[in-house]
Design goal:
The chain has about 325 residues and is an alpha/beta fold. The chain contains ten helices and 14 strands. Strands 3-2-1-4-5-6 form a six-stranded parallel beta sheet, sandwiched between helices.
C-alpha cells in the first residue's frame, strides 16, 4: 500500500547536458514534480534550459523550474546526477571511471555540505561504480543511493523481444542484470510473455543458446555503441527511464525496477553496486528481489560483479 505523496516533490538535476535536459523535458511533459532546479558548472547553460522549459509550461504541467546552485539541494527530495564526461566512440563505460570518479567526489561533497537529507539518483557512467562512489562520499544509508543500473537495458530487452514476437512491450516481462555495460546478462530463465515462459511461448528448447535470442541480447548490450556511432550520445531513453524511477520514488509506488544498488550477500555477492530487480519507494530501495537463477546465469552475474568490484576499488582509492 502506498503512502501520501511528498508535499514538495522537489528535484535537483546536477548537469544539464543531453541526459539532464532530456530528463527535465520528460519531467515537464509527465508532471511528476512541482519544483525542478537545474545546476550546472555552466550557469548560462542551466539558465537557458530553464527558460526554454518554462516557455513550454502552457503545454505541459504547472511546476516551478529554475537554474540554481548546490544550495538548492538542502531541501530537495531527490538529487539526480547526470554530470560528468561523456562516453566517446569506441570507449567503454568502464573507461570513464577515473575521469568521472574525481568529478563525483567533488559534486557529492558539495551537495552534502548543504545539509541534503534526501535520495540520490545516479545516471552518469559507469553508473554502478559512480553510485558506489556516491554512497561512500555521502555517508548516506545504502537504500538512499540508487543508480539507474540496467533499467534502460531492461527496457531495450523488452522492446526488442516485443518487436521480434509482435506483442506489446508492456506485456513482455524480462530483466537484464549485472553491470550497465559489457558484462551485463539477460535472465532468460525468467522471461515471460503475457505470463507464459518464453521457452513455451516460442517453443524453444534451449532459449539461452538460441541464435535469434542471442542476437537480440547482443543488440541490447551493444545498443549504446550503435547509437553513439550514429548520433554521438544516448539520452532520450535514459531520460525517460529516470522519470520512471522518479515516479516510483516521489509517488511512493513500491515498484519493481532494475536499478543499481549495493549488494550485501544477495545472490552470494557482497560490497558491490550492480543492476538487480528491486522494490523502490519514497524511502529508496525497500527490498532487493532474489530471483532463482540457473547455474549459467549465476556464474555470469558473479563475473560481472567481480569486474565492477575491481573497477570500484580503483575509483575509491
Amino acid at each position: 500500500m502506498t503512502l501520501s505523496l511528498s508535499k514538495s516533490r522537489k528535484v535537483v538535476i546536477i548537469g544539464t547536458g543531453f541526459v539532464g535536459s532530456s530528463y527535465a523535458y520528460s519531467l515537464l511533459n509527465q508532471g511528476v514534480v512541482n519544483e525542478l532546479v537545474l545546476v550546472d558548472l555552466n550557469r548560462d547553460k542551466a539558465e537557458g534550459e530553464a527558460r526554454d522549459l518554462n516557455h513550454g509550461m502552457p503545454f505541459g504541467s504547472p511546476m516551478k523550474i529554475r537554474a540554481g546552485g548546490y544550495d538548492e539541494c538542502s531541501d530537495a527530495d531527490l538529487v539526480v546526477i547526470t554530470a560528468g564526461a561523456n562516453q566517446a566512440p569506441g570507449e567503454t563505460r568502464l573507461d570513464l571511471v577515473s575521469k568521472n570518479a574525481k568529478i563525483f567526489k567533488s559534486i557529492v561533497t558539495s551537495i552534502m555540505n548543504t545539509g541534503f537529507n534526501g535520495l540520490f539518483l545516479v545516471a552518469t557512467n559507469p553508473v554502478d561504480v559512480l553510485s558506489h562512489v556516491t554512497l561512500q562520499v555521502s555517508g548516506l544509508p545504502k537504500e538512499r543511493v540508487i543508480g539507474s543500473g540496467t533499467i534502460l537495458d531492461t527496457a531495450r530487452f523488452r522492446y526488442l523481444l516485443s518487436e521480434h514476437f509482435q506483442v506489446d512491450s508492456r506485456n513482455v516481462h524480462a530483466y537484464i542484470m549485472g553491470e550497465h555495460g559489457d558484462s551485463e546478462l539477460p535472465i532468460w530463465s525468467h522471461v515471460q510473455i503475457g505470463g507464459v515462459p518464453l521457452s513455451r511461448y516460442a517453443k524453444i528448447d534451449d532459449v539461452e543458446n538460441d541464435k535469434e535470442m542471442q542476437d537480440i541480447f547482443i543488440n541490447v548490450r551493444d545498443a549504446a555503441y550503435h547509437i553513439i556511432e550514429r548520433k554521438g550520445a544516448t539520452y532520450y531513453g535514459i531520460g525517460m527511464g529516470l522519470v520512471r524511477l522518479t515516479k516510483a520514488i516521489l509517488h511512493n509506488e513500491n515498484s519493481i525496477v532494475t536499478i543499481s544498488t549495493l549488494l550485501e550477500g544477495e545472490y552470494g555477492i557482497n560490497d558491490v553496486f550492480l543492476g538487480v530487480p528491486a522494490v523502490v519507494n519514497e524511502n529508496g530501495v525497500r527490498q532487493i528481489l532474489e530471483l532463482q537463477l540457473n547455474e549459467s546465469e549465476q556464474q555470469k552475474l558473479e563475473k560481472s560483479a567481480s569486474i565492477l568490484k575491481e573497477m570500484t576499488e580503483k575509483a575509491l582509492s
